[in-house]
Amino acid sequence: MDLAQLKQNRNALFWSLHVLGWSAYGVSQYVGALLYGKPVAYVQYIAVAAASGCVLTMPLRYICRWLWKKPPPTMIAGALAAAWVTACVLRVIMNWFYHAYVDLEWPLKHWTEFFGGTLSSMYLITCWIGLYFGVRYYESLQSQRIATLQAASLAQEAQLKMLRYQLNPHFLFNTLNAISTLILDNRNSTANNAVTGLSEFLRYTLDQDPMKKVTVAQEIDALNLYLNIETMRFGSRLKLHYAIEEAASCMLVPSLLLQPLIENAIKYAVSPREQGGQIRIGAHITGGMLQLEVADDGPGMVDATRLANGRGVGIRNTRERLQVLYGERGTVAVTNTEPGLRVSLTFPAERATAPAGARAA
Fold first, then answer.
1. Domain edge (last residue) among 87, 118, 151
2. Is 106 a domain residue?
3. Bridge partners (DSSP) listed for residue 253
4. How many domains does the chain have?
5. In this structure, are 129 and 170 located in the same domain?
6. Region for residue 235 given its phi and psi (left: phi exceeds 0; alpha: psi -120 to 50; beta: otherwise)
């Protein structure tokens, strides 16, 4: 049985440590006997003491297990009482053997002499009990720590899923409006292509695990499913530019992280203007941090630091996702570029283990 199996089998682990502990006690006493030139009979006495201690302390496991559930005063009083009784029995056995086989000339004046040395034995057994409670306390702390981590992980997963799923209704509403407009303009072929593109994008969002990360290249491919729909709607009014570094294309990002930012850029920088607008999507690595950018040449924001208008929903959503995943190392910076707005996402660069997919351009 290896160490991992011992940790899983608490009974085997306890008895292994129990026997090992008393064996170590016996060996230490034996070394001391050799240093002081004790006779062979004294070595036998040490063996009896170690074996008796090992057997007599076995019931203490069950006593301590019962005391563990009691209030501290009861636990302490019960532990001391158990240690005293066990020490008394152990000293009787040890003193009897010593009198009978080691020092035959030892004059036994009174039966109470069989209890001589009980305090020293009680100290040893009290240490055994203290070690048992110490291990139980450590296990309890570890269990609480694991439970806390699991609860935090579940809360983080729930929050991430909530933030991700908030995107779909908003996007679906805007896209259906766009398709409705195409139908009203008798652009039925374009509307049909838009419906097909919408179904492909929704299939991707439903199949994609919100907790899963994808490469930057795969994120751009997924965004193109959305952008193809918007391109059908706006035509040449929507101008797209990509600036994706080769090294950044294989880095991992939360899936559909950029979609709400691009949706904002289309809504505020492209849709309201007759001449349309330009959107730039960039990705590069600086000092071990991955930086993604979505920039447009629209009107920007009155106060980019306060996120006062409608763009704030998507930006706050994105900021919360990064904070949940990366803590303080995940940041969102919003800057008015006059004209336009630039949203920069920065978080630790994490390379994908599998080769990145083909990058859209």
1. 151
2. yes
3. 214
4. 2
5. no
6. left
